[in-house]
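Example (one chain per record):
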Amino acid sequence: SAARRIASERMPWSDPIGLLLQAGIASLEDKPSEALQSLHAAADRFDSADMGMYAAVARRRIGELQSDDEGRKRQRQADTWMAAQQIRNPFCLTRMLAPGFTDR
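Predicted structure:
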């Protein structure tokens, strides 16, 4: 798949983007636990690669799938980070950078 090809680039940005795409595929295949696992790994690796916007997007998706207190906390953290970056529509940015999820 394209996600695996991107991840095979072995660059600091490629692994987490591959994981983000794999999470979207898992979501489309109705595999929420697999999607969450990929999202958590992606968010951590985006942080390590200093890719804050993508980390925030992954955390917003975690919040959507993990509809508990921890998930809502991650989504609030992402929205706070995006607001500080003057991103006016976190929902649309998330849809663009992390496709494959049922948007609510």
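Caption: The CA atoms of residues 24 and 99 lie 6 Å apart.
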